[in-house]
Amino acid sequence: MQIYLDYSATTPPRSEVIQRIQQVMQEQWGNPSSLHQWGERSAVAVEQARMQVAALLGASPEAIVFTSGGTESNNLAVLGVTRRYQQPQHVIISSIEHSAISEPVRWLEQQGWQVTRLPVDATGRINPDDLQAALRPNTVLVSIIYGQSEVGTLQPIETLGQIVRSHGAVFHTDAVQVAGKLPIQVSQLPVDLLSVSSHKLYGPQGVGALYVRPSVELVPLLAGGGQEFRLRSGTQPVPLIAGFGVAAELAEAEMLTEMLRLIRLRDRLFDQLADVADLVPTGDRLHRLPHHVSFYWRAGDGEKRSGKTLVRQMNLAGIAISAGSACHSGKLVPSPVLSAMGLNSCAAKSGIRLTLGRVTTEADVDWTAMVLKQVLNRLTPLPTLSVCQSQ
Length: 391
Known about the structure:
The chain has helices spanning 15-27, 37-57, 70-82, 99-110, 128-134, 157-167, 227-230, 238-272, 307-316, 336-340, 345-348, 362-379; strands at residues 3-4, 64-67, 90-94, 114-118, 139-143, 170-174, 193-197, 208-212, 279-281, 292-297, 319-320, 322-323, 326-328, 331-333, 351-355. It is of the alpha/beta class.
């Protein structure tokens, strides 16, 4: 039995998406910047997709800038704002951002920028009062992740955005894990920039978008032909963009039904593993991505009993899950997200994530829970051995 439960990493493209990509590659393969009919046919495909993605976000089409994915969208948001300033200013991010935010901000810090990383509580939530207190006269950008990919926690984006808007800074949110799973209406949400990625919502890899509120000015990262409203030069990958558009349209149409179905499956999996003493849930159970289940392994103790150990053992059983810790130069590194949430080094190496998707069934959830319990029983150390405990 093969079960894929790593939908936060990537999703399989839907058949409708694949069909659209094939159609465009055969019939609309021209350069969309060309003025002849071949170019015009491709330009129509790009603009149709722009309207489909805009509808998913409740945005106007001209506010959608196509990129190569979530990483580029995040970099364009962070660096596009900060490069407007000749002298370093102040930016605020959370302590649990994706590396596509934390790494460009780290680079800014090396260039003399002042950076505040907001703390989170044990569930991964930001206290809006901390954001209010962190704002400075020279704060020009605040970037807070909407839904955390490792622990599933949702941030109070509307409240945080209102605080930033009152201050006058630009507010960006990485909504890669949220778009297509929860309703987003940027016309009602106080955000200026918002990142999305196609392959997180059953579209192709290699394409994403950045919503840019019309009043926001960005300095482009790429110089060239001035495509995408002069914000992202380069010939657009028309088939990928068209596939992204179809995926966005399908996600919008099915969102409410699928969201409720995933929440039921998510809670079912949490409930079935609730009696496993060595599995401790991570993230916020109430403010949570609908498809996301995560734990740390209390019995973990070093690399032999890390989260990656569970990933490998579940893979041998035909089930795909993922771990939050990383391996650098052969050494297991604690998850920065779990560390920021107050877990010690041992526990922060033992996080696992199970994320559900369109084809996940109750039978898949039940089988996964049973197999995971068997794996844990086989791997859990004897009581005399040391075990991970949270701080």
